[in-house]
Specification:
This protein is of the alpha+beta class. Helices cover about 30% and strands about 25% of the residues.
């Protein structure tokens, strides 16, 4: 009876549904010839409502050839397969505000074919992409040059910088997807400048 009453109130807008939120989790895949070696996963439902989100994004070169050692090459946004995610490692997660979710989604567009999709091993690789996503998620990010080609080490470096603001996971992807609740995480802090220019402007292709 109570359930029917709540459903009726929802239908006429007198009771708001429980708030949701999209969680962003940060991952690495340290070895192997498959790319990207750093990426993030978005999962959940925006607070404002709408379709449930479950997607991953990474950034890599379109072709892994010796040319990537010489300078900038064509890059692409890569959506990882479930199998690839399960064989990767989940490090930590944070709940996004809708504005931060929009900023992260915009980042994907800015680094994709509609924006500046140039890949540079030294200045615009998968780690730089993840760093900018973390920054737009309201996290403190320090880009230590020694770590910008070390996906796992870089993502690990963000954890002490954001202690208490993220949900530590540190587990294989398969174990992560066996969790009863994958989307519970602390709410992220407001980004310093929501929608700020992405790293692609600071590290523009040669």
């Amino acid at each position: 009876m109570f359930g029917l009453l709540v459903a009726a109130l929802l239908s006429i807008g007198l009771v708001a549904p429980a708030s949701a939120g999209v969680t962003i989790s940060f991952w690495s895949h340290e070895s192997g010839q498959n790319f990207p070696h750093a990426f993030f996963v978005l999962e959940g439902t925006p607070d404002a409502g709408g379709a449930r989100v479950q997607v991953s994004y990474g950034f890599t070169a379109k072709a892994i050839t010796p040319a990537i050692l010489l300078g900038s090459v064509a890059g692409k946004i890569e959506e990882s397969t479930p199998g690839y995610i399960h064989s990767s490692d989940a490090h930590f997660a944070v709940m996004l505000t809708d504005a931060q979710y929009a900023a992260v989604t915009e980042l994907v567009q800015q680094w994709g074919e509609a924006g500046n999709s140039r890949y540079n091993l030294n200045r615009r690789n998968c780690v730089h992409f993840v760093a900018e996503a973390a920054r737009r998620a309201g996290l403190t990010v320090v880009e230590d040059r020694k770590l910008m080609k070390k996906p796992r080490s870089f993502v690990h470096s963000l954890e002490p910088l954001n202690e208490g603001r993220v949900r530590l996971l540190e587990m294989p992807g398969k174990a992560f997807y066996e969790l009863a609740d994958r989307t519970t995480a602390p709410r992220s802090a407001p980004a310093a400048v929501p929608g700020a220019p992405a790293m692609n402007e600071a590290v523009a292709a040669d």
